[in-house]
Amino acid sequence: MLDAPSHDLDRATVQKAYGGWAPIYDALCGPVFLIGRKAAVKAARQVGGKVLEIGVGTGLSFPDYDETTEVTGIDITEPMLARARRKLETGRYPHIRDIRIMDAHNLEFEDASFNVVVAQFVITLVADPERVLDEAARVLRPGGEIVLMSHLYSEQGIGAAIERWVAQRTRAIGLRPEFPFSRLVRWAETRSDIELAERRDLGPLYSLVRFRKLG
């Protein structure tokens, strides 16, 4: 019998896991996430203006932004942000305006503060994805976009079976391979101010999902 899909990850698990990943994160995940990362930032740059990056981590995406954007990054894992701060200290990324420890479930920003909210490889890992998306929508200006980059559950066939099996065994290291796209769609359907703008699969590892705020 196949294992059932796992539940959402809790904050303590994610903080512990990514605190441990921090020293090797760039070397290990940089090459794996390269195509997806660049696609997400390209989508953000096409909107331009003020960008909030949720789960900015070690700042892997810093070089992908440019002067068309003004980026604020947040994360809940201090060891990851410490590495991002060291990148900022080089002075090579003037478009990165601020990075802060902050929980995406309770964003400490005013309504309609950003043109784009980006979450790369994050939305499948948070304790309450719908709450995080609600907060992203709250701080987004009308006409702005939420840009998600994540691995999404295959939902059927051998790929889904493998992802369910892996999911039961990788929670402790902060991975969630069986998060369904349908859950994102259902969230958007609960809101009159959000529409799905795009889902684009970038190979078997990850998908780009864009939501637009109406108004």
Automatic annotation (TrEMBL):
- For whether the record's keyword set contains Methyltransferase, the answer is yes
| E.C. code | 2.1.1.-
Recorded hits in Pfam families, A to Z, give: Methyltransf_11
* Keywords linked to the UniProt accession: Methyltransferase, Transferase
| EC top class named in words | transferase
Protein's name according to its UniProt entry = Class I SAM-dependent methyltransferase
Gene3D superfamilies xrefs: Vaccinia Virus protein VP39
Q: Which residues form the Methyltransferase type domain?
A: 52-147
Q: Which GO terms describe its molecular function?
A: methyltransferase activity
GO process terms (BP) = methylation
Top-rank taxon, per record: Bacteria
Species of origin reads Flaviflagellibacter deserti
State the InterPro entries in the record: Methyltransf_11, Methyltransf_Superfamily, SAM-dependent_MTases_sf
